[in-house]
Amino acid sequence: MKKPKMHVRRDDIVRAISGEDADGKKTGKVLRVYPKTGRVLVEGFNFVKKHLRKSQDNPNGGIVTREAPMAASKLVVVTRGGKKTGKE
């Protein structure tokens, strides 16, 4: 089975073109790519709240905010390998 091809790679600088993070100025670095699901984890984009149960590490439990994977189709590459692309 062939690995699906993605237009974004790890360490690319990307900008959102749709959704709540699409303000036009915000960019982020790609931390991880999930080609089977077509999703990408981007630094500073798509924050979700995660509820934690009580444990020895976190005795009170609580709610943390963290990044979640978002659809790769909502992103455009701004910089690849330190060079600007023509799409910006």
Secondary structure blueprint with pairings:
Layout: E1 13-16, E2 27-34, E3 39-42, E4 47-52, E5 62-67, E6 70-71, E7 75-80, E8 83-84
Antiparallel strand pairs: 1-2, 1-7, 2-3, 3-6, 4-5, 7-8
Describe the structure in your own words:
This protein is mainly β and 88 residues long. It has one domain (13-80): SH3 type barrels. 0% of the residues lie in helices and 43% in strands. The chain has strands spanning 13-16, 27-34, 39-42, 47-52, 62-67, 70-71, 75-80, 83-84. The strands form 2 sheets. The protein has a 6-stranded antiparallel beta sheet with strand order 6-3-2-1-7-8, with no helix packed on it. Strands 4-5 form a two-stranded antiparallel ribbon. A hairpin with a 4-residue loop joins β2 and β3. It is globular. The protein starts with 12 loop residues before the first strand and ends with a strand.
Brief overview:
The protein contains no helices and 8 strands. The chain has 88 residues and is an all-beta fold.
Low-confidence stretches: none
CATH topology: SH3 type barrels
Sheet with most strands: 6 strands, antiparallel
Mean pLDDT: 90
> If classified by CATH, what would the architecture be?
Roll
Cα-atom radius of gyration: 16 Å
Which strand order spans the largest sheet, edge to edge or round the barrel?
Answer: 6-3-2-1-7-8
Q: Overall 3D geometry?
A: globular
CATH top level class name:
Mainly Beta
Q: What's the helix-strand series?
A: EEEEEEEE
How would you describe this structure in keywords?
88 residues, mainly beta, SH3 type barrels, 6-stranded antiparallel sheet, two-stranded antiparallel sheet
